[in-house]
């Protein structure tokens, strides 16, 4: 059945029936053919750090990259490291694509993470902080303050900070307090002046207060003091009659992965809410401490938190550089990337400057491919759903919601549609990691408005990005479809690079109708014409496409494979690409994050190139392009090449067919892989080398800047016509 479905998806002709996909895995490939996925992720975060080290990047953007690095690493520990540790403790099989003992993998992660965190701290102290100071944004210490400034800040402390602080003593009457994950804390040793006894106390730095306190402002020159320094220099006010012996900053990371056995629970929402409550009390997995912390205090923390020495990270202050997100938002245009205002896609531009585009009329004329954030989300996807909500001819709207913003106009459009009497189905994925609580809130709000809310299939996350509008036209029903690579989130659409396809193609409409019916029902079984859908069809469909390129190469016919994803990890896909490379297929992989594939190895992957691009926008789109003997098969969609995407999620790729769109995607890929474009290159040992300057030391092409220019040029050309 599955094989028949894939053939119907346009992946082969009748003579493809002799394809035996078992052959894809028959070749004798070496055992050590994969790069470790966890170490590859750390290498990705190193690339983020290299952007912070780049003096050509505006300094507030460099501070932002430091904050992104810190936030990324927190999530890596909370999920990936925590998952490995949990499986070791519980005796579950630990998935590893390199065949090494999990304890050895954890040791390597620890070594690399320690080195990266020290490098991260040094970039702040020796590069970004001085560069900010030179630009008039100075983060100073208490010792650098004038007497008048200290007095003023002491007054601020008494009025605005002291009332919300909660010092917690540790003694026979007060057990060691619970330390919340990712909180910044002060470990304080004090001596009772009356008894002479030494005590320990913990003080949490309030997360709701600004991390950097204003000291002075004169025009564009501003000075800040870290909040923890202000608190640390007023500890006598918190412990009157006590002698302050010492204080040190520390920060704990806990296991915050959520595990739900859906087939064993009757109410997914209730089970998820209980698991979210449990998440707060997950076991510790990392302890960050100031490098000046004494051994007595450290030993106490290790003992009370039940953490190993390997999980302790000694770092120069300040800890928790996520606080730099606040600094990076300072309104200094000269210290940011030049502003870019997304343009309205040419197809959706109104004929009259003062008018409003008819989105449905534009889609009827031809398929529309939009490229965010270069082209506006608000005037395309958002406008599409808002027009559908108001249009009296629209009878039904069906949509998936994986992550959306807190004040989402997308959700409001669905509510407006339901309140106007339309049939509205929202498939809300309440298991979207770290957005679970927000999605539960949205699901309940939608239900109250009369939207039919469903939560997908048991055991599967619904990760596909789909919207379907059913409209009555001349007595007939017509389907308007949108399939995207990114979430329906107006906020992230401004910084995430993604594609979306609008079409009235009847095959796509029928495909989405079947898929939505199955998502609100029980299983995905139907065949699809222009879609590849996981978990039943996508893996096999891609393997057949790769195998067909291999056979074309062996027969001397044109062949090539180009894939753009966030992660390339799945062993079956990688092995199929190795076999295609052995047959001589040119293969280009454009990956943002993890890549377990080894390129450029003689006899295995000589024809494979791997590039990575990071910049002001987060490269998020997924593209799959196959030469197919001169009849290109090109797909966009939501799936990365990971086990979870191919086997445990509902994902969807849609085939792009319009020649103008095929050229646009091909041109973009050629630019990304060009030696004249700034990017990172992966070698066969897993090392990434940055190529940002030409032989004369001049900057290479920034693909994101070039794409902005290309989009603006298309708009100007339309205006001239």
From TrEMBL:
<feature type="active site" description="Phosphohistidine intermediate">
    <location>
        <position position="463"/>
    </location>
</feature>
<dbReference type="InterPro" id="IPR001736">
    <property type="entry name" value="PLipase_D/transphosphatidylase"/>
</dbReference>
<dbReference type="InterPro" id="IPR025198">
    <property type="entry name" value="PPK_N_dom"/>
</dbReference>
<dbReference type="GO" id="GO:0008976">
    <property type="term" value="F:polyphosphate kinase activity"/>
</dbReference>
<dbReference type="Pfam" id="PF02503">
    <property type="entry name" value="PP_kinase"/>
</dbReference>
<feature type="binding site">
    <location>
        <position position="72"/>
    </location>
    <ligand>
        <name>ATP</name>
    </ligand>
</feature>
<keyword id="KW-0460">Magnesium</keyword>
<dbReference type="InterPro" id="IPR025200">
    <property type="entry name" value="PPK_C_dom2"/>
</dbReference>
<keyword id="KW-0808">Transferase</keyword>
<feature type="binding site">
    <location>
        <position position="433"/>
    </location>
    <ligand>
        <name>Mg(2+)</name>
    </ligand>
</feature>
<dbReference type="InterPro" id="IPR003414">
    <property type="entry name" value="PP_kinase"/>
</dbReference>
<comment type="similarity">
    <text>Belongs to the polyphosphate kinase 1 (PPK1) family.</text>
</comment>
<feature type="binding site">
    <location>
        <position position="620"/>
    </location>
    <ligand>
        <name>ATP</name>
    </ligand>
</feature>
<dbReference type="InterPro" id="IPR036830">
    <property type="entry name" value="PP_kinase_middle_dom_sf"/>
</dbReference>
<dbReference type="InterPro" id="IPR041108">
    <property type="entry name" value="PP_kinase_C_1"/>
</dbReference>
<keyword id="KW-0547">Nucleotide-binding</keyword>
<dbReference type="Pfam" id="PF17941">
    <property type="entry name" value="PP_kinase_C_1"/>
</dbReference>
<feature type="domain" description="PLD phosphodiesterase">
    <location>
        <begin position="615"/>
        <end position="645"/>
    </location>
</feature>
<comment type="function">
    <text>Catalyzes the reversible transfer of the terminal phosphate of ATP to form a long-chain polyphosphate (polyP).</text>
</comment>
<dbReference type="Pfam" id="PF13089">
    <property type="entry name" value="PP_kinase_N"/>
</dbReference>
<feature type="binding site">
    <location>
        <position position="403"/>
    </location>
    <ligand>
        <name>Mg(2+)</name>
    </ligand>
</feature>
<protein>
    <recommendedName>
        <fullName>Polyphosphate kinase</fullName>
        <ecNumber>2.7.4.1</ecNumber>
    </recommendedName>
</protein>
<dbReference type="Pfam" id="PF13090">
    <property type="entry name" value="PP_kinase_C"/>
</dbReference>
<feature type="binding site">
    <location>
        <position position="592"/>
    </location>
    <ligand>
        <name>ATP</name>
    </ligand>
</feature>
<keyword id="KW-0479">Metal-binding</keyword>
<feature type="binding site">
    <location>
        <position position="496"/>
    </location>
    <ligand>
        <name>ATP</name>
    </ligand>
</feature>
<keyword id="KW-0067">ATP-binding</keyword>
<dbReference type="InterPro" id="IPR036832">
    <property type="entry name" value="PPK_N_dom_sf"/>
</dbReference>
<dbReference type="InterPro" id="IPR024953">
    <property type="entry name" value="PP_kinase_middle"/>
</dbReference>
<keyword id="KW-0597">Phosphoprotein</keyword>
<keyword id="KW-0418">Kinase</keyword>
């Amino acid at each position: 059945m599955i094989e028949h479905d894939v053939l119907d998806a346009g992946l082969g002709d009748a003579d493809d029936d002799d394809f035996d996909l078992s052959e894809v895995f028959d070749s004798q490939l070496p055992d050590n053919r994969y790069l470790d996925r966890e170490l590859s992720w750390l290498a990705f975060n190193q690339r983020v750090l290299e952007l912070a080290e780049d003096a050509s990047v505006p300094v507030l953007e460099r501070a932002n990259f430091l904050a992104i690095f810190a936030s990324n690493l927190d999530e890596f520990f909370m999920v990936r490291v925590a998952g490995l540790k949990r499986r070791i403790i519980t005796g579950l099989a630990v998935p590893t694509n390199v065949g090494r003992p999990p304890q050895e993998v954890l040791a390597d992660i620890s070594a690399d993470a320690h080195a990266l965190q020290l490098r991260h701290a040094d970039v702040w102290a020796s590069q970004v902080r001085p560069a900010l100071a030179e630009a008039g944004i100075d983060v100073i210490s208490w010792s650098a303050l004038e007497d008048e400034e200290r007095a003023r800040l002491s007054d601020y402390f008494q009025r605005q900070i002291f009332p919300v602080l909660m010092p917690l003593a540790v003694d026979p009457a007060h057990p060691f307090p619970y330390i919340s994950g990712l909180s910044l804390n002060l470990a304080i040793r004090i001596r009772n002046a009356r008894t002479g006894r030494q005590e320990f106390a913990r003080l949490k730095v309030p997360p709701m207060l600004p991390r950097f306190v204003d000291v002075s402002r004169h025009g564009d020159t501003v000075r800040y003091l870290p909040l923890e320094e202000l608190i640390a220099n007023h500890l006598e006010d918190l412990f009157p009659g006590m002698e302050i012996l010492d204080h040190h900053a520390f920060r704990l990371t806990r296991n915050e992965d959520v595990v739900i056995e859906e087939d064993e629970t009757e109410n997914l929402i209730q089970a998820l809410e209980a698991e979210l409550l449990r998440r707060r009390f997950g076991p510790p997995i990392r302890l960050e401490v100031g490098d000046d912390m004494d051994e007595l205090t450290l030993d106490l923390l290790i003992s009370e938190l039940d953490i190993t020495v390997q999980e302790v990270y000694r770092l120069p202050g300040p800890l928790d550089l996520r606080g730099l997100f606040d600094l990076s938002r300072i309104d200094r245009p000269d210290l940011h990337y030049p502003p870019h205002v997304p343009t309205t896609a040419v197809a959706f531009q109104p004929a009259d400057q003062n008018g409003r585009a008819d989105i449905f009329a534009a889609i009827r004329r031809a398929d529309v491919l939009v490229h965010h954030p270069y082209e506006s989300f608000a005037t395309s996807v958002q406008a599409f759903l808002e027009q559908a909500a108001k249009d009296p001819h629209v009878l039904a709207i069906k949509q998936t919601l994986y992550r959306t913003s807190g004040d989402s106009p997308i959700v409001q459009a669905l509510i407006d549609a339901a309140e106007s009497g339309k049939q509205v189905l929202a498939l809300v994925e309440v298991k979207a990691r770290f957005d679970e609580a927000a999605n539960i809130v949205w699901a309940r709000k939608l239900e109250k408005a009369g939207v039919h809310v469903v939560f997908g299939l048991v055991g599967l996350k619904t990760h596909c990005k789909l919207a379907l509008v059913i409209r009555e036209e001349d007595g007939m029903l017509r389907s308007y479809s949108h399939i995207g690579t990114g979430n329906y989130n107006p906020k992230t659409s401004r910084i995430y690079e993604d594609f979306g396809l609008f079409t009235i193609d009847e095959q796509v409409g029928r495909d989405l109708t079947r898929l939505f019916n199955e998502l609100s029902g029980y299983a995905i079984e139907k065949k699809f014409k222009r879609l590849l859908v996981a978990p039943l069809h996508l893996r096999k469909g891609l393997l057949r496409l790769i195998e067909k390129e291999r056979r074309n190469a062996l027969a001397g016919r044109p062949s090539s494979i180009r894939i753009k994803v966030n992660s390339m990890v799945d062993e079956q896909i990688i092995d199929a690409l190795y076999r295609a490379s052995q047959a001589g297929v040119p293969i280009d992989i454009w990956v943002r994050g993890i890549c377990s594939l080894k390129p450029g190895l003689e006899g295995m992957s000589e024809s494979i190139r791997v590039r990575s691009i990071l910049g002001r926008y987060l490269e998020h789109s997924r593209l799959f392009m196959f030469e197919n003997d001169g009849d290109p098969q090109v797909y966009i969609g939501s799936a990365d090449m990971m086990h979870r995407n191919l086997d445990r999620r509902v994902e969807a790729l849609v085939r792009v067919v319009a020649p103008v769109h095929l050229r646009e995607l091909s041109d973009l890929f050629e630019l990304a892989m060009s030696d004249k474009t700034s990017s990172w290159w992966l070698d066969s040992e897993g090392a990434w080398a940055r190529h940002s300057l030409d032989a004369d030391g001049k900057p290479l092409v920034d693909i994101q800047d070039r794409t902005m220019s290309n989009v603006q040029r298309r708009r100007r050309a339309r205006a001239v016509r």
